[in-house]
Every structure is written in C-alpha cells, then in structure tokens.
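Re: [help] complex structure
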Amino acid sequence: MRLSGTQMPKTQDEAALIERICSGDETAMADMYDRYSGIVYGVALRVLGNTTAAEDVLQEIFLQLWRNPQAFDANRGRLPAWLAVIARNRAIDHLRKRPPEDDIADLPISTGVNLESEAAQRLAVDKIRGVLSRLPQEQRRALEMAFFEGMTHSEIAARSGEPLGTIKTRIRTGLITIRKEFS
Amino acid sequence: MKDHAQYAEMLALYAIGALDDAQDCPDLEEHLRTCPECRQELAALRGDAALFALSAVGPAPPQGARQRLQAAISNQPRKAPARAGMVIGVLRPRWLAFVPIAATLALAIFSLLLLRSNSRLQGRLDQVQAQLADQGSKLRKAQALVDLLHSPDSIEVTLVAEMKPRVPHVKAFYSPKMGHLLLVAGNLDPLPPHKAYELWLLPANGTKPMPCGTFWPDAKGNAMMDHSLSGAGIQAKGFAVTIEPENGSEEPTSPLEFRGEG
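Output below.
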C-alpha cells in the first residue's frame, strides 16, 4: 500500500472523510494525516516535551482512528478540534504513565471555527496566539497548567498560592474569552 | 446536593480535565446525564479548549512518522464492507416463505454467539495491541540511542580537567537481572600485538572471576563493548580488566590493569 495523499474537493466534509476510512480507503488516512498530524503532534509535543513520545501519541491516535473510525461522530463535533482534545488527553495519559482512558468515543465538541484546510488552521493558530498574548498572564498560566501540564485546579491553587475559586474563575474566564474572540 | 448553577461553574474545569476526579467528577457526570443545557455548554467549552490547544501547533512531525504510520496501517488492513447485491424475486411454494424466517432466527442466534465471542477476542486484541505499542515505543527509543552511537557523523568527546594528564578509565554498567553489561572505556594504552583487553566479573560470593568478553581500543584509546552473561542473577562485587591473548582466557593470566567495585 502506498500512503499517498489525494486532493479532496473542498466540499467534501469530515463525515465523508470518515466514511472513506470506514470503507478501508487507506488514502483517506493519508489525507487525514496530511491535514491534521500537525495539530496532534504539536499538542502532544507541548505536553510531553519529547519528540519520540509525541510521535508515539500521534501514531496511537491515527491507528486507533483507522481501527475504529466510528469513534468520531461527525454530528457531535469537528474533527480537528476533536483530535486536538484527544491528543491532549492521550499525551497526559503518557505523561502520567497510565493506560489510555476510554475517552476517544464519547467526546462531543462544539466549535464554529473551521479548521479543515491548512490555511484555516494557520489563521486560527495565529489568532489564538494573539488572543493569548492579550490575556492576563495569570489567566494564561492557569490554562497552560491545567491543559498542557495536566494539573487539577487544586494542584494549581497549591502551586500558585491562590484560592481555589480564583483558579476556577481564571480558567473559565480564559476559555470564554477565547470563544468570544473567535465568534 | 449542588444546584445547577454550581455544576455549571465546574464545567470549564471538567472540559479541560482540571477537576479533581475523586471529589467532584462523579457528581458532575451524574448531573450531565440529566441536563442538556450543561451538556451543550460542556461541548462548547471543549471547543474553546481545542482552540487553546492550537497555540501549540507549529513543529512538524518527524520525517519518518508518515512512513511508520503507513507501515502500521499496512499491517492492519481492513476490508471494505460488502456491497449489496441485486435481489431477483422468483415464485416459490408458500411453505417456503417460512424457510427464510427460520434461517433468519438461526442466523440471529448464531450472530449473538459470534458477537459474544468477538467481544472477548476484541478485548484480548486490544490488550495485545497496547502491549505492542508499548514495546514499539521502547524499541524506537533504544534504536535512537543505537543510531546515535553508530551514526558516521556522531562525535565522541571526553571532557577532562584542564592541566591534568589524561587518565585511562573503564566504566561497566551491569544488570544482574538482565544478565547484560555494557562497557565504555577511554584513554586506553595501545595493546601489544595479538593481545586484547579482557573484562572480568568478580562474583559477590567470592568465586573465581568470570570472563565477560574481550575488547580493543580504537586509535584514540576508546572502546565500547556489550556482553550477555551465560545466565541471569549473578551478583557482582566488582569488575576487573587484564591484558590477555586475543582469543581471551578462561581465567586472568596477567596482573590487573583496572579494577573497580560497585
């Protein structure tokens, strides 16, 4: 088998891509890899700080999708957003050396942001970096500690010496700010 | 029991996995089962978290990653679902109408049995695949180290204290459990013709030294050797090195050149 990418028409949506994978079309996996491996790898590398471990997560997620493409329900979220969150969760599992949680199937995600094409992804990446640069430092840090370092809000509170309620507010406000900036 | 507003406050933490599992998760998950409004907000917060995740996007995966995935997929080919064929109707005696029903029932029972069996097999398959993935990861890490050591462009630099003479040194890494050892040496003197350095394991129980392989320094005086012992579990008090005939000896025949104890 040669895993060569094919140019999919722009109108073909994620559900169609998943359908091709369901039917055993290996070029669909190549398309998916070409489009979204950067997201999965980038997130895993940010969490793990190790290229070998990040590639392990990348391989694991794409192989799992190949084996069980129905795990992604196109009606319940957008594929790249879903992959980003799955990548984070899997990387945290690796970080804590625990067996992967069974979270790949049931993870509804809702976002209005289109991330399907490479250009759209680049725009979104630039935009989120701009948004984060304007967030208050402590808000951004709380988000990073929770999302990329896998800390609970109690651990963040203990580390930063701030009350639990403050951490909770920072994380919630940070996420809502991101939503507003993209809406 | 918390009210809806309290649960709603916890959603952002839950969406990014920052809620303390033992304390709050079970409560919130119970609430989510009965609250569509919170489920909708949770999905939106996960979408926000996904956008936040994009801030990490940038580094491209390693060059070989695509090929490795290709190989892994090729090892797990999947069959396309069978296409539905055209059905052509024909006239049959009426009693024959019950044959498909009976066959369908029999097929349903058989399918249920198969399903149960399949589920058990799938569970075992998942375990094996998880083990394979873990071993693959370890293998890649080990391979990366070996590649580094053997790469033609790799350089080896020994840092020494300035203004002090270069001292010959030998390091042995040994795991009794694995029965395997690695030797790394530097600044060794050149050997006389037809001679080799030989490493000896000095058993903790005081029995005679065990030969652990011969090695030769390169032009710079560096040497590396890995060696598997004939059995695992041999405890070592220390190691020693002598100069022996190039085919090695069964016991040391010359004074110790190096000796060290763990």
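Confidence is low (pLDDT under 50) at residues 81-91 of chain B.
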